[in-house]
Amino acid sequence: MSELTLTVMRLGFLAVLWLFVIVAVQVIRSDLFGTRVTQRGSRRQDARPQQNARQAASPPPQRGQQSAGGGRQRRGAPTKLVVSEGTLTGTTVALQGQTITLGRAHDSTIVLDDDYASSRHARIYPDRDGQWIVEDLGSTNGTYLDRTRLTTATPIPLGAPIRIGKTVIELRK
Amino acid sequence: MSVVTNTTTIGAIEAPSRRNTELALLAFAVVIPVFAYLNVGLALDGEVPSGMLGYGLGLGLLAGVAHLVVRRFAPYADPLLLPLATLLNGMGLVLIWRLDQSPRLIALAKRQYGAFSASAPNQMMYSAIGIAMFVGVLLILKDHRVLQRYTYISMVAALILLLLPLVPGLGTDSFGAKIWIRVGGFSIQPGEFAKLVLAVFFSGYLMVKRDALALASRRFMGLYLPRGRDLGPILTIWAVSLLILVFENDLGTSLLFFGMFVIMLYVATERTSWIVMGLLMATGGAVFVSTFASHVQSRVAAWLDPFECLKTAPEGSNMAYACDQMTQVLMSFGSGGILGTGLGQGNSDLIQFAANSDFIFATVGEELGLTGVMVFLLLYGLIIERGVRTALAARDPFGKLLAMGLSGAFALQIFVVAGGVMGLIPLTGMTMPFLAYGGSSVIANWALIGILIRISDTARRPAPAPAPSPDAEMTQVVRP
Questions:
Q1: What does the record list as coiled-coil region(s) (chain B) (predicted)?
Q2: Mean pLDDT, residues A104-121
Q3: B1 lies within 8 A of chain A by CB
Q4: Beta carbon pairs, A and B, within 8 Å
Q5: Which residue, B105, B114, B216, B363, shows the most beta carbons closer than 10 Å to its own?
Q6: Residues of A with Cβ-Cβ distance to B365 under 8 angstroms
Q7: Which of A1, A5, A20 sits opposite B28 (nearest CB)?
Q8: A12-50 per-position pLDDT tens digit
Q9: Which residues of B touch A48 (CB under 8 A)?
Q10: Cβ contacts (< 8 Å) between A116 and chain B: which residues?
Q11: Nearest CA to B117 among B105, B128, B104?
């Protein structure tokens, strides 16, 4: 067997061994770089296509799109959501571009202990420009912005009360 | 309310079972040893070795059976453990077969025992038994929590396993250590199995007692000392197993058990003081043993300066022998360099005795070089990483502790063997899991992988659907 062939085989074998290690590490890449939070978000949105179809005007909220397109939030944009009436009075949630869901379901961002709220009552999300939008998710008793019952996704003015059952929330700077 | 039905809950992500990933990696893991086999054959004789097809098919068959059993009985198991173990086992077979071809080792065997018998076919048989053990573990152990019931039985079993080599007529004293028993022509090393059983005992015991151990403690010189009645039983069992091991001259295994004990205590109680105490006790024990046991002294001398010790040690003594081995091992690693001499082209057979068991890593070092040694250490590292990951993912404390203990023991074994062979720590006769020649080691380590796969299957299995919650109650309608 010629020296050249053996050298090539020797180096080739080492390359194959390393290839195996690299492939193995690729398999566990998900462990090294955190959990599948982003997947989870997209799955949740995939799961409710009917609503979006019904309210075709509303753009699908997507995390990350805001930072990709617009950069920093505008001046005067709200930074937190405050519960001002109801059992959860005083609760605040920082607004960081994530969708906030409200309802009695355990997986809601704000779990309402309120007999007049639906399991999945409403959600609040930023649109492409960073404007916060509230959308009723087909709740039984409806979501009110000031005194008007919401029929479509509506931008939220700063400080305007949003009423869900006995709970009132508003956006503040 | 129609909204509720079509929204998935957070946390209930379907975990992919990843069995196909495992199959692809497994195929890769079988092809690599076949390539290595071809490489050795071409380098030694210049032709394709005759047994290549047989070994390749044999390994492929074993891997296939293991994969099918995992697919059927542990569908959510970790996809990496089986391919990694298969690759290491296959590479071990090739390296052992390569050392079988060495004229020096054949001559040595003929001089010492009058006849030479190839080790590779035996190792192939042990691998088959190992896979059978793996399959058995997966078939019998449907849920690892069952082992929890056998906490104290496993304590007794571990003690019996450790005591067996001391039974006259059953135990055999070979190569200065009384760790083998001879049953019907087979040598068995019960210590390898005791490792698994002891891990079961430690996790079962610590799971029940960990709160007492962590909280009901007195502070003494900055360390938390638990009450005697909590610590007593486990300390006793540890001391007894150590004493037996010291008596049997098997210090590598005693270091392994001690390390496993400390790791599991630390994981169970989250108290750093255990690590401090463990290191102090290990140092004390090492100093004590190296002053009193003569065969450890020669190991230490061979570790400190093998070349000097080779010159000064009396001819033909035990110490000269240990030093000669160590110098040969170091020369092997040195002549391998970065890229190695190539499979089948090294002279690691100069190590002579135990070249294919305790010192097999020197062959890797010489023929595959630093690059290859790193691959092997990474492969072991990945197995350990998957074990620890399984422990993190496990939902029950017993599974957590058991996975952690087993992977900790595995890691320590790699450290003790590789460190000893490379001259980082004094040599203690232990075997590189899967790589080295030896039936007990291969079988016990396949069982270990089987248990880890079982725990990881339970841990990665998607959680059952949550019970209907108060959400399901009807929302009251506001009547105007």
A1: none
A2: 85
A3: yes
A4: 130
A5: B363
A6: none
A7: A20
A8: 999 999 999 999 998 887 665 544 444 334 444 444 444
A9: 3, 6-7
A10: 475-476, 478
A11: B105
A 66-105 → B contacts, CB under 8 A? 104-105
Q: What is the pLDDT of residue B82?
A: 95
Test A44 with B36 for CB contact under 8 angstroms: no
Q: What is the model's pLDDT at position B105?
A: 84
Nearest CB among B9, B18, B35 relative to A13 is that of: B35
Q: Is the pLDDT of residue B180 over 90?
A: no
Q: Do B6 and A47 touch (CB under 8 A)?
A: yes
| pLDDT category of residue B176 using cuts at 50, 70 and 90 | low
Q: Which residue has the higher pLDDT, B32 or A48?
A: B32
Taken in order B53, B55, B61, B67, is the CA torsion positive or negative? Answer: negative
pLDDT over 70, % of chain B: 90
Pairing of strands A110-111, A122-126: unpaired
B421 at interface of A, judged by CB pairs closer than 8 A: no
B44 close to A (CB below 8 A)? no
The label of the residue with tokens 């939008």 reads: A133
Distance of CA B412 to the CA centre of its chain: 8
Question: What is the spatial distance between Cα A78 and Cα B225, in angstroms, rounded to a whole number?
Answer: 53
A17 near B CB under 8 A: yes
Residue A149 forms beta bridges with which residues?
A: A144
As a three-state string, the secondary structure of B248-266 is CCCHHHHHHHHHHHHHHHH
Are B453 and B71 in contact by the 8 Å Cβ rule? The answer is no
Closest residue by Cα to residue A100 from A73, A137, A68: A137
> Do the Cβ atoms of A165 and A114 come closer than 8 Å?
yes
Triad B470, B473, B477: Cα angle to 5°: 135
Burial of residue B381 (CB within 10 Å: 0-12, 13-18, 19+) is: middle
Residues of chain A positioned with their CB less than 8 A from the CB of B477: 140-141
Q: Distance (Å, rounded) from C-alpha B366 to C-alpha B337?
A: 7
Give the pLDDT score at A41: 40
Helices vs. strands in chain A: H and E counts, helices first: 5, 11
Q: Is B476 on the interface with A (CB under 8 A)?
A: yes
